[in-house]
Amino acid sequence: MSLIVQKYGGSSVANAESIKRVAKRIVEARKAGNEVVVAVSAMGDTTDELLDLAHEVAPIPSPRELDMLLTAGERISMALLAMAIENLGHEARSFTGSQAGMITDAHHGQARIVDVTPRRVQEAIAEGAIAIVAGFQGFNRLTGDITTLGRGGSDTTAVALAAALEADVCEIYTDVDGIFTADPRVVPRARKIDRITSEEMLELAASGAKVLHIRAVEYARRHEVTLHVRSSFSNNEGTIVYNPRDGRDENGDPVEEPIIAGVATDLSEAKITVVGVPDVPGKAAQIFTLVAKSGANIDMIVQNVSAATGLTDISFTLPKSDAQAALTALTVEKEAVGFATLQHDDQIGKLSLVGAGMRTNAGVSARLFTALYESGINIEMISTSEIRISVVTRADTVQDAVRAVHAAFGLDGEAEAVVYAGTGR
Hints:
It contains twelve helices and 22 strands. By secondary structure, it is of the alpha/beta class. Strands 3-6-2-1-9-13-14-12 form an eight-stranded mixed sheet, with helices on both faces. The protein has a four-stranded antiparallel sheet with strand order 15-20-22-21, sandwiched between helices. α5 (153-165) packs parallel to α7 (214-222) and α11 (364-374) crosses α12. The longest helix has 25 residues, at 63-87. The radius of gyration is 23 Å and the shape is globular. The model has no long low-confidence stretch (mean pLDDT 92).
């Protein structure tokens, strides 16, 4: 008997009919002889609607109370899903994150899992029941408070349960047929990837691909959990995300990695340029220490060549939500650092090309930059890793850029991809 952990996102349980369809899929897995544990997100746009409501009553809601509010969404969907399963003649028990033993740190809104003690979940499956766990939420032992894991946290809940329960596979159900070479909402002819390494998926997730949450991929890689990304709206096979060992897949078969796995875009970042920085040792350290203390997470950094004046400019990208705190921290210490001015630009977009095969194939950069040049797209910043090239362009050119690059690397499929649901909000 196999133990399967399944995760269903908000678009998969958006209404009563969707919940009943998901319940049938779960029961089919149980009838096939598997033990089944399910992590479920809030219905549709419930989390966004609750956030909007919170900001209507309080411009800056208490983080603790916001977590209490947002966890209501998953409680609703888990209970309704358990009812739907029981209506099909199978026992189901629903559990909140705390009841399921999802122990986190005390950071409200972005808590990290520090331990998983799924005793009640194990008891439920040992007694033949299907366990339904509320995704996205946990519990801090020190404070006794409910916490949330941040957007996309239900993926992390599922992976953490799979690791703790030593599940055979963790199935992530979404509103597309798997992981594609680009977002099929932007590139209709994006091609589905059958298998992808966790390393490539980690780079794609970090670069803006929304199909899997980056922390879930990190957790799966660290704990060697195999992920199977599928659509809850079809029976298509989906995509396997695996941890390669010595050039072999999870079955021990040799694999030849493709040059390019996919193209991702991200419109959630802003750029800050510190203008007129004295070009002397220690100034970059001062600047980025201040930014770090503001709590901002920096992505790309570019420093211009020093001018004849002995001054230079330093540009960096960071999440738009972190930009104001970073600007404030730098402004307060303007005299101490000695820079001239700050520039803030929130109309940028990032495009990233990812593929493990880049390590052994020349000419990838040339083809990327040629495709952008031929499309009339200007590059403002460049960053690379061993298996990724990222560029920053204007936000309003990113969609044209991704379609041009996707075609230039021969990633277009023969037919248009199907997007079954989801608002993209």
